[in-house]
Amino acid sequence: MGVKGLTHFIRNNLKAHAIRINFMEAARGKSLVIDALSFIFYCFNEVECKFSAYEAYLNNFLQSFASVHVELIFVFDGMLEPMKQRVRLCLCL
Predict the structure, then answer these.
(1) Averaged pLDDT of the chain
(2) What element of type H or E holds 73?
């Protein structure tokens, strides 16, 4: 998934149009759609690919959203990006 040019647009327009919000409060009682493969990749990077830390990190993430009644919807879509394929292969070996 991705939106071509989104990162460039955000960098160029962030200061002029952005406001700070408390995301967890803004999301309270709503649903949030998450790109599942990108999420898994992000989590493994956060815990430096240590399976022992992954479960705790994931549980903490899920609990933080559950505590404010946010429904998480994980979507598995499309092919793996080349960078993710390398990580996936490394984890499987």
Answers:
(1) 82
(2) strand 71-75
